[in-house]
Amino acid sequence: MSKVVKKKQQAQSLGYRLRNLMLSVMATPLNLLAIIARLMWSTRRLRLASIALVLTLIVTAIFRITPLQPVADYLLASAHNMSRDAGFRVDDITVEGRQRTQRADLIGAIQVSSNTPIFAIDLDAIHDRVRDLPWVGDVVIIRRLPNILHVSLSERQPFALYRENRTLTLIDREGARITGNHLAKFSHLPQFSGQGAGLRAASLMDTLADFPVIRNRLVAAQWTGERRWTLHLDHGGAVHLPDTNLAGALSRLMDLEKQQRILAVENQAIDLRLPDRILLRRQDKRSSFLSLADEKDAS
Fold it and tell me: Is pLDDT of 18 > 80?
């Protein structure tokens, strides 16, 4: 094969690849224009909404320069008004997942009134405001076109109370603080104290799940020296756990409980920190947790 023929074939191959590349690049915008054109020539409402959206895209693309911003804002507002007249406005706000979040607080965080153009709503801003509400763990905000704003909440679940000095705060399983108000209804939850206790509470409770006799009598747990737990029981007794092998120490305690019923003794401290013995002594009667009888002092 001559060099001339070979070069000609290479040129044809290159031209073929370039043509395919151009078609690929043009395919997406052409399809988009086709969809917009189809919408514009359907019903009157969809035509108006399509025109408004096209104007919005044009404004966003062209008027990014600061001196032209006032013109951009005016055209964008006009596009939103056209979409509202076409029926794309907020007629209803639906909410799912709300149990403990106050309705008034949620409305105040959403800050959207009826008849607002639905495309003018800043979903990110609403998300951030709702996410900051005490009980809200996560939230999803979506537009359900043409006229519904939908809010889906995932609320925090109360897990325990965290005590810091004379202040109690309700926390979830991850140790995140929920609220310090109206805690009387959560008085059945154990209280945790000590630096970092809230973050370690779930791990301790998971361990105690295998020891229900102790778990059911637990009223408070103190994280001591940032390395070990002291459990306070409902009859004034205490259990001092080692900094390692909690399950092993609790198993030894349960073996002794079966033999001598030591957990039935009031105001008794049970020391499990030594691996080869269990020490018993009289427990200080001072309360290791806050009472919720006076909610003002506890909140």
Answer: no
